[in-house]
Every structure is written in structure tokens, then in C-alpha cells.
């Protein structure tokens, strides 16, 4: 067929699929030239345009599904006393990506649930969603009649109180000038109503006044008073809490008195403690909070549950008391409805940055602490494997007898409950439970008045919300669940979880008998005798987890014809503490072998996959493993894409906000006063991908964030220069205003487009 006829066929195809993009393509360059070479070049250009358009459209489709981020029960009205019928209002908040504007939008929905006793009879339509603008935090009062919002607008931050008749109160926090910016992050932030509903508790940055020339100035001290700053202090270095918490250094507890229109900064917090996650003590006579040690210096806190911290009580007179053990980490304090009990999570300091946590129970009356759920070393197949993530803000049953939470379990995420008296853990819902076997992941958003609100999804099903009452954990199979919102979509591909046993030569003899997992996504309806290329997707962390939930990137890759293998190598969460600890000192070997073993098992069992077209991708530690794989198996993997990868752990030592992990990963115990030795630096270097750079032959795509505090972008540059000097195909994308996660919508879209084009170019 002639180039011109090829062009005409392509033009018809493009006009059918993308009529809005054909206006500039009506006159093909190939129709105006006679040179066959020019015709072929023009044809390739139009094919590239069509390919890019399809990639963008698929990614836009997959990333645009709303994701629920929170839920709360805001009203419960009895409408029929005789028949015990009542009407419950649920407020849900969602996040949604808008590729047209390159932003993440947030919106709210209200659902009305008609119930009889403990059964949902009907769910009324939600009506139109409401766009949430410039909102940092929000919280409904205990009675549900008013809502507090902290909002930022035109450089000022405000506390707003909304009621049935609109805005009832507004305080300009910036004008009051009692503190700096309000914290809205997951590590410190809170917005809590006092029991009397007249005060609001929140966390903000301590007030700092920049010195002016030729004068001394005042700044708030730890008691909220003023201290003088000398001119010589104007350039003094101020630490912060690292990646994702840049500029957050000295948090303070603040109370907005709504009647007086005033803000008070709580005094009495020890200066070596940074408070957060605060809640009111019973009767509002004090506050309880998690305090993180900030001495001798701060380490990165985001994604790190191994930072020294404790649970404290602070009374109105400024007396501060530690309620938990010393020398451990503490997080997620949650008070029971009767204010008699507090549960919180406790872990070890240093070592793995994410770990299996204990759930502790504090008896407010007897002032005693006990272990409610202990660390799980390893679990039987499909059984509870421990707690790895924060608790829902509302997690207690109405009778104060049970605590509910979500946790990773092998390749899935499920909801569990623990009995306060016996400590018995029961799976409430999740994979193969309560007729939710169509979903690979169930995340508990809230339980209030024994009504559970859960987000459910699978690799081929975007998130939806389900609600249901749970009257007894012993009758969990009788729980009735109703759908209240979200996508009702099944994407056209298949998925399956895998459990893999390492062969004897790859066993860790200190932690023998450990399995690991993977999740395979496969496209449907392949052309006859055509095999799919395989993309191996590796999570970062390394102590993180791929659950069988909705993953827009993996779904989009599968819809574009790739099979995707997501590997939970030994060291991932969801498989017990032994699996996590087995990786210490074995990075660059055990995890690399696990990923490659998962690929070999998959190719052996799936004849529809092409073993000659395997690519690998990952971010952070996932990028570390991706680069290791193309270096250690240079004839196997055909292409690589790495986001902010660790390339040389020895040169990263002085630039990362989590310097402790640089030591722990190679099996060296960390202490604040530890100095590098030649032996430790050699160990870090020997476990790094850079030592295999000379063997890399697969084309490598690097994507780096210029403001990454966790893994310096100079890590990727180090590999880039090593490959360039050896004429190995390499391409580097630089996102100057991005951090470690490369999370901006436009950045995600650009990365995805470039990854797919890179793989298509080098796998075909």
C-alpha cells in the first residue's frame, strides 16, 4: 500500500476517534510532497499524534474517578418512635483530578439513609455535589448542629462556624496574630470541638517575627509569650519536619474561644516536644495530644511511624503529664464515646520506618495502659496480619466495647474489629467476607452510631461507598450493605492476586518460610496469537504495600494493552513484622530477587505474556529496585522508568531527611550521634544500583522532583551521567517545583505519557 493510501486510512481512523482534533490535520504533509522519505516521516508524525491522543484520553478516563477521603454522620433523627425508624445524614468528602485545569478538586456529598433499628431500608439520592474551595480543615460539632471550617483566602486564614442559617461566626486568625499558619497535614493537624461546643482546638506554627534592620524584635516563646530576637539571629537556621512538611517546625496547641472571639496558645508543652493530633480530655478540662521529640534534631516524619513520641495530658493550668511509655512511638489517639477509654498505636523507634504496630488501651479511670492488639510476627494465609496504618478518626462502637480499623492483609486491605475486653480480633469485611469478594480492598472511613461507611474498590473497579450496621461481630455474615455513591464501573480487564514462595537458594535463613505477594492485571480480548508486553510496577517505601484497589496508573496501562505486575516483595507491609525485618541489611539483593522471582513465576504461568517484552518501573525505593533489575539482569528487562530513585545510598546519606533509614536499610543500628565510617559507606555503596550502571543496557527514563527532600534529585543525575558517558539510552525529565511524590496533576499526566511512549518505543 502506498504512503498516501496509508495516510488516508489513518485520517479516516482519526476523524472517527478524535473529530475535535482533526481541524489542523485535514491537509496532510504527505499529500503535498512526492518524496517517499518525507511521506514516511509525515505518516510517523501523524501516528505519534494519534498515539499521544489515545494515551492522554485513557489516562484522563482513569484518573478522573472520584476518590472518597472522609465520611461522618452529622445527624440522626427519630422519625417513627413506634417502629424505631430513624433518618441518618452522612456527609462524605471526595477528591477528584481535573486534567483540564491540572488541579485536584474536592467536593462534598450528603446522603440520607432511612433505617429501621439497625437495618438500612433505603438510601435517598444525594443531589448535586458541592465544590469545596480553599478549605483546610472542617469538623462537625458533637451535636451535629454546627460545623467549623478553617479556610484560607487572600493570604488570610479564618475560622468559620456554619449553622442552619448560614455563617454564624468568623475569626480572622491572621489578623489576631497569635500564631503562624494552621497545620492541615496528617501528622500534626486536628480540629476538635470542646464538649460545650464553644471552643475549637487546633494546631498551628509557633509565631515567629523576622528581625528588622538595626533593631531587636519580639517572638512567641514556648508559653505563648514574647521573647526578644537580636539582629544577629535573623539568619539562624530553622529545622522543619522534612518532605511534605516543609516550613513546619514548631507546632503549638491553639484554642479559639468562639464566645470571646479570641485565640489562646496553650502554655505548658515542654520545649523539646512538638504537639499534634490533639483531642479534648473529658469534660473539656484539658487536652490530650501526641508529642514528637524534636531534640537533638528533627528527622523526616511523613510515612515514618518510627519517630520517638508519646501520649500527653495537658491541663488548663499548664501542667503536662506523659501517659504512655518512654522511648517508643505513639499515634492515632481515639477516645471512646463514654470518655472512659483511649486507644492509640505504639511502635518502636528507628529501624523500619513503617512497621507492624501495637494497639494500646488506656484506662482513663485507673490511669493504666495495656496491650489490646500485639505485633503480629507472621500470620497464617488470609488471616489478620497486624496493624500498619492510622486509625479512623471515629473507630469505636456505640457500646464502647469494640474498635474498628482497616489494615493490609497480604495483597488486600480489609476491615477488622477488636473486642476491648478480650482482645479478640475479627475480620469484619474484606476479601471473601460479607459478599464483598468482588472487591480487593475495603477501607473504613468512619463508624458512628454503629453505622459503618466504607470505601470499596478493586484494580478494575473505581471506588464506591457502602454503608451498613454491624450489631454483632459474631453475626458479621448477616450484615446488610448498601451502596451510597461512587463509580459503578467495571473496566475491561482481569486481575488476580498471587502468593509466591521463594526457592531455597533465595531464602532468608534468619527469617525462613516467608511468602510474598503480587497482583497481576491482564487486558481482555487480545488479538489472536498476540502476547501482551509486561510492565513490572514496584512500590516504594520499601515498607509499603500494593493493595488490590483502584490504581489509576496501573488501570490505564492495562487499558492500553500492557499487562501489569505489582509486587509486594518481602519487606512490604501486610505480611507480618518478620517480613519487614527480613529486609534490613538485605536491600539490593533480597528485594531484587523477589521482584525477579515474581516476574519469572508470572511468565511461567501466563502464556499470554511476552517474555521478550518486559519493562520495569517504580518510584523512590521502587525506582531503586527498577534500576537494580536492569543492572543485575541486563539481558532480561527491555526498558526502565524510575521516579526519584535511590541510586547511591552512600552519597544520599547527607542529603536525605530520613538519614536513619540510610543506616537501618543496610543493617546498621542508628543513633543521633552516629558518624559515617568507611565500612558503613562501603556497605551502602555495595547495595546501590550505581555499582551495576556499567552493565545497564536497557533504555532508562528518569523523572526527578527538584524540591525532593527525601531522595535528592542529584541521585537520579548521578545515574544519568553514568549512562550518558557509556552511550546507554537515557532521558531525564526535571520537575523543578515538585517534591518526592511527583503528585501534581499535570506532573502525573506528563510522567504517564512519557512512560508509555518510552515503553512503546523500546518494547516494540
Automatic annotation (TrEMBL):
<dbReference type="Pfam" id="PF19283">
    <property type="entry name" value="APEH_N"/>
</dbReference>
<dbReference type="InterPro" id="IPR029058">
    <property type="entry name" value="AB_hydrolase_fold"/>
</dbReference>
<dbReference type="InterPro" id="IPR011042">
    <property type="entry name" value="6-blade_b-propeller_TolB-like"/>
</dbReference>
<dbReference type="GO" id="GO:0005737">
    <property type="term" value="C:cytoplasm"/>
</dbReference>
<keyword id="KW-0963">Cytoplasm</keyword>
<dbReference type="GO" id="GO:0006508">
    <property type="term" value="P:proteolysis"/>
</dbReference>
<keyword id="KW-0378">Hydrolase</keyword>
<comment type="similarity">
    <text>Belongs to the peptidase S9C family.</text>
</comment>
<feature type="domain" description="Peptidase S9 prolyl oligopeptidase catalytic">
    <location>
        <begin position="553"/>
        <end position="764"/>
    </location>
</feature>
<dbReference type="Pfam" id="PF00326">
    <property type="entry name" value="Peptidase_S9"/>
</dbReference>
<comment type="subunit">
    <text>Homotetramer.</text>
</comment>
<dbReference type="InterPro" id="IPR001375">
    <property type="entry name" value="Peptidase_S9_cat"/>
</dbReference>
<dbReference type="InterPro" id="IPR045550">
    <property type="entry name" value="AARE_N"/>
</dbReference>
<protein>
    <recommendedName>
        <fullName>Acylamino-acid-releasing enzyme</fullName>
        <ecNumber>3.4.19.1</ecNumber>
    </recommendedName>
</protein>
<dbReference type="GO" id="GO:0008242">
    <property type="term" value="F:omega peptidase activity"/>
</dbReference>
<dbReference type="GO" id="GO:0004252">
    <property type="term" value="F:serine-type endopeptidase activity"/>
</dbReference>
<feature type="region of interest" description="Disordered">
    <location>
        <begin position="18"/>
        <end position="38"/>
    </location>
</feature>
<feature type="domain" description="Acylamino-acid-releasing enzyme N-terminal">
    <location>
        <begin position="92"/>
        <end position="477"/>
    </location>
</feature>
Amino acid at each position: 500500500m502506498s504512503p498516501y493510501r496509508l495516510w488516508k486510512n489513518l485520517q479516516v481512523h482519526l476523524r472517527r476517534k478524535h473529530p475535535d482534533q482533526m481541524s489542523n490535520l485535514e491537509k496532510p504533509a504527505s499529500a503535498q510532497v512526492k518524496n517517499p522519505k518525507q511521506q514516511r516521516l509525515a505518516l510517523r508524525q501523524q501516528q505519534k499524534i494519534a498515539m499521544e491522543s489515545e494515551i492522554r484520553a485513557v489516562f484522563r478516563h482513569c484518573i478522573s474517578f472520584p476518590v472518597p477521603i472522609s465520611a461522618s454522620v452529622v445527624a440522626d433523627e427519630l422519625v417513627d418512635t413506634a417502629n424505631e425508624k430513624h433518618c441518618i445524614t452522612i456527609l462524605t468528602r471526595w477528591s477528584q483530578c481535573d486534567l483540564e485545569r491540572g488541579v485536584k478538586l474536592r467536593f462534598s456529598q450528603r446522603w440520607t439513609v432511612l433505617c429501621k433499628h439497625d437495618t438500612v431500608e433505603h438510601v435517598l439520592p444525594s443531589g448535586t455535589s458541592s465544590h469545596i474551595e480553599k478549605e483546610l480543615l472542617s469538623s462537625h460539632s458533637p451535636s451535629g448542629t454546627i460545623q467549623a471550617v478553617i479556610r484560607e483566602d487572600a493570604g488570610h486564614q479564618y475560622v468559620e462556624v456554619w449553622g442552619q442559617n448560614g455563617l454564624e461566626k468568623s475569626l480572622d486568625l491572621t489578623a489576631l496574630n497569635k500564631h503562624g499558619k494552621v497545620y492541615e497535614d496528617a501528622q500534626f493537624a486536628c480540629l476538635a470541638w470542646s464538649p460545650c461546643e464553644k471552643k475549637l482546638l487546633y494546631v498551628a506554627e509557633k509565631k515567629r517575627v523576622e528581625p528588622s534592620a538595626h533593631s531587636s524584635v519580639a517572638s512567641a516563646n514556648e508559653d505563648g509569650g514574647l521573647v526578644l530576637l537580636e539582629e544577629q539571629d535573623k539568619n539562624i537556621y530553622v529545622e522543619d519536619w522534612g518532605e511534605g512538611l516543609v516550613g513546619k517546625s514548631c507546632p503549638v496547641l491553639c484554642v479559639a474561644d468562639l464566645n470571646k472571639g479570641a485565640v489562646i496558645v496553650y502554655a505548658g508543652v515542654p520545649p523539646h516536644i512538638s504537639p499534634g493530633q490533639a483531642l479534648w480530655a473529658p469534660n473539656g478540662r484539658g487536652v490530650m495530644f501526641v508529642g514528637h521529640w524534636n531534640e537533638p534534631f528533627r528527622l523526616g516524619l511523613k510515612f515514618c511511624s518510627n519517630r520517638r513520641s508519646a501520649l500527653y495530658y495537658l491541663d488548663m493550668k499548664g501542667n503536662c503529664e506523659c501517659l504512655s511509655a518512654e522511648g517508643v512511638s505513639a499515634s492515632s489517639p481515639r477516645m471512646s464515646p463514654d470518655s472512659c477509654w483511649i486507644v492509640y498505636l505504639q511502635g518502636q523507634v528507628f529501624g523500619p520506618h513503617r512497621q507492624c504496630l501495637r494497639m494500646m488501651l488506656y484506662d482513663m479511670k485507673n490511669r493504666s495502659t495495656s496491650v489490646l492488639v500485639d505485633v503480629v510476627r507472621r500470620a497464617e494465609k488470609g488471616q489478620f496480619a497486624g496493624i500498619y496504618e492510622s486509625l479512623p478518626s471515629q473507630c469505636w462502637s456505640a457500646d464502647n466495647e469494640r474498635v474498628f480499623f482497616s489494615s493490609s492483609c497480604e495483597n488486600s486491605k480489609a476491615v477488622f474489629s477488636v473486642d476491648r475486653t478480650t482482645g479478640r480480633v475479627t475480620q469484619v469485611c474484606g476479601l471473601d467476607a460479607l459478599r464483598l469478594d468482588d472487591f480487593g480492598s475495603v477501607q473504613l472511613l468512619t463508624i458512628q452510631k454503629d453505622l459503618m461507611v466504607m470505601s470499596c474498590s478493586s484494580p478494575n473497579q473505581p471506588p464506591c461507598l457502602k454503608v451498613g450496621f454491624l450489631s454483632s461481630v459474631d453475626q458479621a455474615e448477616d450484615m446488610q450493605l448498601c451502596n451510597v455513591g461512587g463509580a459503578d464501573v467495571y473496566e475491561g480487564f482481569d486481575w488476580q492476586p498471587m502468593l509466591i514462595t521463594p526457592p531455597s537458594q533465595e531464602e532468608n535463613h534468619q527469617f525462613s518460610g516467608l511468602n510474598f505477594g503480587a497482583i497481576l492485571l491482564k487486558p481482555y480480548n487480545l488479538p489472536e496469537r498476540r502476547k501482551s508486553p509486561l510492565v513490572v510496577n514496584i512500590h516504594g517505601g520499601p515498607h509499603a504495600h500494593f493493595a488490590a484497589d483502584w490504581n489509576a496508573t496501573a488501570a490505564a496501562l492495562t487499558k492500553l494493552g500492557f499487562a501489569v505486575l505489582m509486587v509486594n516483595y518481602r519487606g512490604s507491609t501486610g505480611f507480618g513484622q518478620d517480613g519487614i525485618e527480613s529486609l534490613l541489611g538485605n536491600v539490593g539483593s533480597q528485594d531484587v530477587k523477589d521482584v525477579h522471582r515474581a516476574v519469572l513465576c508470572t511468565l511461567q504461568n501466563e502464556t499470554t505474556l511476552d517474555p521478550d517484552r518486559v519493562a520495569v518501573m517504580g518510584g523512590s525505593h521502587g525506582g531503586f529496585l527498577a534500576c537494580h533489575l536492569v543492572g543485575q539482569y541486563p539481558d532480561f528487562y527491555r526498558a526502565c522508568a524510575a521516579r526519584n530513585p535511590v541510586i547511591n545510598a552512600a552519597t544520599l546519606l547527607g542529603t536525605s531527611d530520613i538519614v536513619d533509614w540510610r543506616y537501618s536499610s543496610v543493617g546498621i543500628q542508628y543513633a543521633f550521634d552516629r558518624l559515617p565510617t568507611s565500612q558503613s559507606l562501603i556497605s551502602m555503596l555495595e547495595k546501590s544500583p550505581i555499582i551495576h550502571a556499567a552493565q545497564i543496557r536497557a533504555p532508562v527514563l528518569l523523572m526527578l522532583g527538584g524540591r525532593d527532600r527525601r531522595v535528592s534529585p542529584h541521585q537520579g543525575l548521578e545515574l544519568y551521567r553514568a549512562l550518558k558517558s557509556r552511550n546507554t539510552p537515557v532521558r531525564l525529565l526535571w520537575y523543578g517545583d515538585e517534591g518526592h511524590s511527583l503528585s501534581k496533576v499535570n506532573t502525573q499526566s506528563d510522567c504517564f505519557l512519557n512512560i508509555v511512549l518510552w515503553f512503546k518505543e523500546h518494547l516494540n
